[in-house]
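In this section we walk through a basic example: taking a raw amino acid sequence and producing a predicted 3D structure, encoded as discrete structure tokens. The instruction is simple. Fold the sequence below.
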Amino acid sequence: MTTTTNIISRRILSGMLAFCWITTTYGQEKSLFNVRQQQATNAATNVAKSTKPVVPDGDFKKTTLTRDFISEGVAVADLNKDGKMDIVAGYYWFEAPNWTRHEMAPSRVFDPRKEYSESFLNLGMDVNQDGWDDVVIIDFPGKPGFWFENPKTQSAGQWKKHILADSMGIANESPGFIDIDGDGRLDILCGDKAKKQIVWLKAPTKPGDTEWQRFALSQENVPGTETFSHGIGYGDVNKDGFNDVVVREGWFEGTADKKSGNWVFHPADLGEPCSHMQVLDVNGDGKNDVVSASAHALGIWWHEQVMDEQGKINFKTHLMSNTTAQTHSSIMSDLNGDGRKDYITGKRFLAHHGRDPGDSDPGILLWFEFTPGKEPYYKEHVIDNDSGAGLNIVAQDMNGDKKPDIVIANKNGVFLFENKVKK
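The resulting token sequence is shown next.
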């Protein structure tokens, strides 16, 4: 039987190899390398906790669409207009209700221990408003995003590909699909690779339009905009009625003008490199906090909003969970029907092909219900221990029972989890 000591030793060694690989491949600055190196040490130290048996609660019905690695992004949409929600994973879509697999453009199955896919995050929406849902794909970090135009019939051949926002390289590994301007259509919150600027890409608004517009929120050369930056979110930090942008180095103060490029940056400590950052009042004290999860090491946290010695907003970090590592995506949705959104995250299985500490451990998928006013203010639930999550998660009613279900795609495959949580 392998001892815990041997496991830890192997994980430390794999962590060292991982960070040599990250530095060579990503070309990251030394400061970020040091942060990740410390994360690897922390993860190795806590590996005994992270490898304990994890048993699902049994509140979700699991359907495996495929075990092929075809995408780390996922989306849902009614692509054939039959009234049923289909599932999208990269260049493929699975037709409900039998999940028949179709190809939108030439693609293939990838080797999870050697390759990345061509699809990191996905979104289903009617981009050109012709009445047919299309598919948006965020490619490898730093590359331009694109969308596939629905050909309107299954027999129409390949879907036409359109590049987003004049080929702007999309920076930050956790872009957000968020309605920035409140027009009812999802936009893309991210960094501009070239200008190192927080921007949003506005979805077309007029029928027939195919162009996404780029608008800047911040000045150039700001934190959170490197190609491989981890962590970005959107919410009202200071309760002034305007949503702000949070990154792990601080927050950009929002204004009514979402095209000005002059949102002021406030440095703050929002923890380690993470995935999508969620803004909410965790403890019920009337101040908005931030929830984040470690993208490549171990930890899920809530960052309590506090005032520093200068009377400025800062954050105190509290550990929520070290059940699993590599939690590289998250989403909020009310899973238990109590009127309060819950936090969903999961392990990005083989995030760096097995080179990071713990990234080949079981693919755990989790959700947390929040209990403001009642410590510790949250309760952890296990959905599954053989799937995990990719780089974005979908929470949407797939079976018509008016409960949000969960859909994920990653190096483990593509999965649907039907919500059976009781109120």
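Looking at the output, two observations stand out. The longest strand covers residues 313-325. Confidence is low (pLDDT under 50) at residues 1-37, 43-50. In the next section we compare this with other chains.
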